[in-house]
Design a protein that fits this description.
0% strand, transmembrane helix
Length: 353
């Protein structure tokens, strides 16, 4: 069913992040500028590849898999940049560390929520397999069981995952920290924070799309604005406008679900329902092909799509977790880390695990 939509207002971080990172009159060396430009051009390229060929590809499981794969690549690019900057963790400002650790915790929480929802959807395959099994017999008892499985599928798909509510609150908190800390006396730090800002914006955007798809509501779909000075700004704006517009159009049209493969399964089940419950002939029900065969194909496509997406979400979780663990390890062995920070890091590390 359709959902009432709030007015769409671009999300603007408090202040201008680049006023703090690259204040007027500041200059980067040619080497640092080349590193930053290369990173941002790579980010722009990833965003261009993510733009769907047409509206029907938006929120397909295959597109969502590609989006999550791109996120993993962006975060991996950040690690490469840190190495190229020759900026060891011992030279990081405490504020940069706080930003990184806080963001990583939020991302891990979001990944856990997404994995939970994917797992819940995968459990629905049990109902689909039961439907197909029972439709293989002309027995009236089997038809009764098929109907029960259809009702179970409907109820399962229509239920809500409470972990998604927590995911929304985490993303709201994540959005409020787009305003990055002021960088003083460190050109390398300014490049690092600007790169992390770009990845953070794209990560938040993609996560909001996933949360929208899984929750069945576009209320939390985010419209983010970034400074035009970013080399990836246009690519991001084009992608965001295309995807968000298509998603809102789909919701306003009254579609029950916006996940393409899930919608395909739903249509097959709805076509089969009157045949099983009322004994209606397939032609009368508007089904021109073999309905069980169509359901089997749709169910297989849905199952495979979920499996592939689950792997990508897990891969992204591991990218974030290993990056966080590496930072924690370096800080624990560093001689310039205060006892209080060591205590906080140990507590945070245990909480994530």
């Amino acid at each position: 069913m359709s959902h009432p939509q709030d007015p769409h207002r671009p999300f603007l971080p408090f202040g201008n992040p680049f006023r703090m990172m690259l204040p007027k009159g500041s200059h980067l060396s040619p080497k640092l500028l080349d590193l930053l430009n290369a990173f941002e051009e790579s980010l722009a390229g990833r965003l261009k590849k993510l733009k769907p060929a047409n509206g029907e590809d938006v929120l397909s499981l295959s597109w969502m898999k590609s989006a999550m794969e791109s996120l993993s690549g962006m975060h991996a690019d950040t690690k490469v940049l840190i190495t190229a900057l020759e900026l060891p963790v011992c030279d990081w400002d405490d504020k940069w560390i706080d930003v990184y650790l806080d963001d990583s915790v939020k991302l891990l929480d979001i990944c856990i929520a997404f994995s939970s929802e994917i797992s819940r959807l995968r459990q629905g395959n049990l109902f689909l397999q039961s439907i197909l099994h029972n439709l293989g017999s002309a027995s009236s008892n089997q038809f009764v069981r098929a109907r029960s499985s259809m009702d179970g599928w409907r109820q399962h798909v229509g239920s809500k995952n409470p972990r998604l509510d927590k995911c929304f609150s985490v993303m709201d908190s994540f959005a409020q920290t787009l305003d990055l800390p002021k960088i003083k006396n460190s050109s390398k730090g300014k490049v690092l924070m600007r790169a992390m800002y770009g990845v953070k914006v794209v990560t938040l955007f993609i996560c909001s799309i996933f949360a929208t798809a899984f929750s069945g509501s576009a209320k939390k779909l985010m419209d983010l604005e970034v400074p035009e000075t970013c080399l990836w700004a246009k690519a991001f704006a084009d992608l965001q406008t295309f995807v968000n517009t298509e998603i809102r159009n789909q919701f306003s049209s009254g579609r029950v679900t916006v996940l393409k493969e899930l919608e395909g399964v739903d249509k097959c089940v709805e076509n089969l329902y009157p045949i099983v419950v009322e004994g209606v002939e397939p032609v009368e029900a508007g089904v021109l092909k073999n309905p069980p065969s169509e359901l089997e194909k749709s169910a297989e496509k849905f199952s495979q799509g979920l499996d592939l997406l689950a792997k990508e979400v897990d891969s992204f979780f591991q990218v974030v977790l290993t990056g966080r663990d590496a930072l924690l390890c370096n800080l624990r062995v560093g001689g310039n880390v205060s006892d209080q920070m060591r205590t906080n890091l140990n507590v945070e590390g245990q909480a994530v695990r």
